[in-house]
Specification:
Ribosomal Protein S5, domain 2, alpha+beta, four-stranded antiparallel sheet, Alpha-Beta Plaits
Length: about 300
């Protein structure tokens, strides 16, 4: 194989109560990467579309090439690769933009080299892209983008990732207000110390959410979608968050919260019809605030990356 085109999906990280340990993939939006083997040695970013010229073309400063380089260094392989990146999601959206690029890159290079590694073995290299993007190699975006579905990061040291059963009638609504929040900024405002009572409440919600997913108990999922630690702080960065969340719940959503570091807000619903009703309510709420938004409705993406051609 001399060339490959790969799509990698957007993701919702944290999922309310699961800061840095829970995430799931959706069908859209996402990023596309075209990679071509060349006779010349080394990586070369030939073009980037959809970023308005913001992303670096330097291979040591772009998440897609940093992830690929970590993969090639691990295999001790020296090849030439031309890379074309098309961003199909907004930057700084809280939808795992950097993760999607990194995942598309490592998945694509593994395909080009005839799959010397299993898909699950690609995760540490994709995490290097996250280290570059936000200063920490967290996996709650890259793991679901790579593996598909709902994912729990049980441990970071050693890395232990677990896929979680997803009810077939679970649908996500994502609304991205057209404002930008840098992940590093959103992490910098978080509290470094927690009250024990808040930690206990959060642990109970994480256990309830995972149990609800496995048992397909939608009411338990709904009761467990509560974040008493991160959301109260980060929500202050998103204009109209409380009103938008209230509108989603009033329209029938099981729960609603911040996607990753924001500003995107996600909801989960137990039917596609409800998910679309929730989308209309959330979008209308932002419109009343004179904030334009992009809206996506999707089942949970169980596949992860996809070879397009």
């Amino acid at each position: 194989m001399k060339s490959v085109k790969v799509f990698a999906p957007a993701t919702v990280a944290n999922v309310t109560c699961g800061f840095d340990v829970l995430g799931f993939a959706v069908h859209e939006p996402g990023d596309e990467v075209i990679m071509q083997l060349t006779d010349a040695k080394g990586l070369c970013i030939k073009d980037i579309k959809g970023d308005d010229g913001v992303l670096p073309r330097d291979v040591d400063k772009n998440t897609v090439t940093v992830a690929i380089k970590a993969y090639l260094d691990h295999l001790q392989v020296d090849v030439g690769v031309d890379i074309y990146l098309e961003k199909k999601m907004p930057l700084g959206s809280g939808l795992g933009s950097s993760a999607a690029s990194a995942v598309a890159g490592v998945y694509g290079i593994n395909e080009l080299l005839d799959r010397p590694l299993e898909v699950s073995e690609l995760l540490p290299f994709a995490m290097q892209g996250e280290l570059l993007a936000c200063g920490e190699p967290h996996a709650d975006n890259v793991a679901p983008a790579l593996l598909g579905g709902f994912v729990l990061i049980r441990s970071y040291n050693p890395l232990d990732v677990v896929k979680i059963h997803t009810p077939k009638n679970l649908f996500a609504t994502i609304v991205h207000p057209q404002i930008e929040i840098a992940t590093k900024d959103a992490r910098s405002i978080l509290k470094r110390n927690l009250l024990l009572k808040d930690a206990i409440r959060q642990w109970g919600n994480i256990g309830g959410l995972i149990t609800g997913l496995f048992t397909e108990d939608y009411q338990l999922i709904s009761r467990s979608m509560e974040d008493v630690i991160v959301e109260p702080v980060r929500s202050m960065l998103i204009p109209g968050f409380d009103q938008v969340k209230a509108s989603a719940l009033a329209a029938g959503a099981l729960g609603c919260g911040i996607s990753g570091s924001g500003p995107s807000i996600f909801s989960l619903s137990s039917s596609v019809e409800t998910a679309h009703q929730v989308a209309e309510a959330m979008e209308a709420c932002f419109r009343e605030l004179d904030i334009l938004s992009d809206v996506f409705v999707s089942p949970v993406n169980q596949q992860g990356p996809l070879v397009i051609s």
